[in-house]
Amino acid sequence: MNGHKYVALDVDSANIVAGVHDCKGEQVMQAHIRTNSSDIRQFFKAVNGTVHVTFEEGTQAAWLYDVIRPLVAEVVVCNPRYNKLLQAGSKADKIDVAKLAKLLLLGELQPVYHGDQTMEGLKHLARAYQNLVADKTRVTNRLKAIFRGRAVGCRGSVVFNEEQQEEWLGKLDIEGLQTRGGYLYEELKCLVKLKEKARKAMCLEASRHPAFKLISSRVPGLGPIRTAQIIAIVGSPHRFRTKRQFWSYCGLAVVTRSSADYEWVEGRTRRRKKAVQTRGLNKNFNRPLKAIFKGAAVSAIQKDEFKQYHQRMIDKKIRPEMALLTTARKIAAITLAVWKKGETFDPKRLNQAGQSTDNQ
């Protein structure tokens, strides 16, 4: 069993189906493994040669990656949305494993990034904070819906004032509805405290990373919270060779479409002179990261440097939403440069380069 081996895993909470294939794509072994670290390590120690492993992103993916990575030459956690071959024909664990192994051998899998284990703590704290923010928003929306449902005006945030809680509940004309509103007020009070606690824990953990002070102090629009979230989501800036790759990950890249690009002229091919058609922004992106940079753009245009940058685009008759998008792209590019190279933000450079992005 020497040489290169390609191992595909079909994982569930209790059992893993493993298929081992050689460099010709032929199966040399198949096994069932309990979903625990000791059995997994024992299995891979029995596989000789240079071992390449793949499995789909899922609930246990991060844990499984940490267990397997030290034991093999390569681990590819693949994006199941791109595995169209698995959706064709009959479906079973053994069939899926065989198809995954062949895709791994051909290099046709779309990998999902998994960083160092040292980042896992910050990732979980950032997710906890994000979930609590979402939960708080959900409760406030439900609370306002109660008052709107009884034709009680509740614009603004005054309805959430803890001191006026009894007064607002008194405006509801149904006793059961008042009780329901009281529960929501209690839930909101707990979530506010938990959100603040999660924020402090996330920022404290993020402050231990060298990039935290670098980004939060040098990039306009990015304070401690947004910086902590960016570090948790991105992990390493060296994943992205250029700012355009980073824009694509953030959902800020412009998608273009073209066809019949060449024509024959005097026995030679020549590229047609026609404008490239744009089709909006890329749809496969990290949604929290896009929200972070768009929020940073809204904050940054309130300050002198980016306020002037944004206003110049407005003066050029660029639509406000496109001007804000271009500002978000600029902040993302600055963040990547500061993080990768330790550069200092220079407001004068806002007048240089990037003019092509203003018109996209």
From the alpha carbons, calculate the radius of gyration and give it in angstroms.
26 Å
Number of strands: 9
Oligomer: single chain
Biggest sheet: strands side by side, in what order?
3-2-1-4-5
Count of helical stretches: 13
What does this structure look like?
- It is a single chain.
- This protein has helices at residues 37-45, 61-68, 93-106, 120-149, 165-169, 175-206, 210-218, 224-234, 243-250, 287-300, 304-315, 320-341, 355-358, and strands at residues 4-11, 15-21, 27-34, 50-56, 74-78, 254-257, 262-265, 268-271, 277-281.
- With 360 residues, it is α/β, with parallel strands linked by helices.
- The model is unreliable at 353-360 (pLDDT under 50).
- It is built from 13 helices and nine strands.
- Helix 9 (243-250) packs across helix 12 (320-341).
- It has a five-stranded mixed sheet, with helices on both faces. A two-stranded antiparallel ribbon has the order 6-9.
- It has three domains: 4-106, ATPase, nucleotide binding domain (Nucleotidyltransferase, domain 5, 2-Layer Sandwich); 118-206; 212-253 and 283-358, no CATH class.
